[in-house]
Amino acid sequence: PRKVIYDTDPGVDDAMALYYALAHAGVDVVGITTTFGNVTVEQAATNALYLTAIAGFEIPVTKGVARPWVKASEPPPDYIHGADGLGNLPVREVTRNTLDPRSSAQFIVDMARAHPGEITLVAVGPLGNLATALKLAPELPTLVREVILMGGTVVEPGNVSPVAEANIWNDPHAADLVFTADWKLTMVGLDVTHQVILPVTLFGKIAQHQQHVATDTLLHAVKFYANFYSDLYPHVAEIHGCFGHDVLAFIYLTNPELFQLESGRMRVAVDGLAQGQTMLRRKRIDYPQAGWEAEESMTHACMEVDAVGASQVLEAT
Ligand code: BDR
Ligand code: CA
Description:
Blueprint: E1 2-8, H1 12-23, E2 27-34, H2 41-54, E3 61-63, H3 104-114, E4 119-123, H4 128-136, H5 140-143, E5 144-150, H6 166-170, H7 172-180, E6 185-188, H8 190-193, E7 197-199, H9 200-209, H10 215-232, H11 234-237, E8 241-243, H12 245-254, E9 259-268, E10 278-282, E11 299-305, H13 307-316
Parallel strand pairs: 1-2, 1-4, 2-3, 4-5, 5-6, 6-11
Antiparallel strand pairs: 7-8, 9-10, 9-11
Helix pairs in contact: 1-10, 1-12, 3-4, 4-7, 9-10, 9-13
The structure holds beta-D-ribofuranose (BDR) and calcium ion (CA).
Calcium ion (CA) binds next to helix 1.
Keywords: Glycosidase, Hydrolase
GO biological process, one term: purine nucleoside catabolic process
GO cellular component, one term: cytosol
């Protein structure tokens, strides 16, 4: 199985993604690094510990960055993932998993050094932990096998502004650093995540064969999340569903054949009206463009996905 460090701000779709990864024989989650985003970093760490504990897993969990690098921090919204990030769970069991004392960035660096060429970073929140790890260890790109991130968008409209996706919007400076580092990076953005609408009933079906991944908790959280999306989009309301966002990052890892990609050099607008926009200078463009050097880039952006295939993979795992 592929060794993965899961960088996350759980978050309902983050939880779906975690349970998909834990249930998949091809994925070995060797650590969970948390960040602010959908919730505060404290709540994110609490949720990661809780989600793993109730599923019977003991995986190192670390606490990471609490705010964006440069821009002012804003309190997380409570109406998308709930005030607790998991759809306002009515009760929580008492659990015993404890936090690894290292920072998320230090953990990433330590693991990459201990397993050179083996670690895949799957990042599904704002990118401050990865950016901090790059500052701590500039050689990190030579140690990491691959980066797969949920964030950004190329042609699909943004979900925070007309051009910005939430994870990139939340820390555009960190994101720009991550996109321009010299590692193999695949972006799983709104271009594909908005194509995959997962009905709540799918998670009911998963619950029937995935006893070990705490499906009651997940089901509660997914219902809350689906209510949010159903209020916004009539076509999502029709099936009482939600977008797959973070789980698509793992489905890309396990089933890349379901995706079509475009490669190029990616930069992020760090301020102004377009703050948080991800801009792809496509590889096939070979004439000079203002502000862009012509060098090869390592960003591969997912543009199309076999949505039916992705849902089937999720249901079967
Ligand atoms: C992303 O933002 C968060 O709300 C989700 O967890 C996902 O990572 C989607 O834009
Ligand atoms: Ca997330």
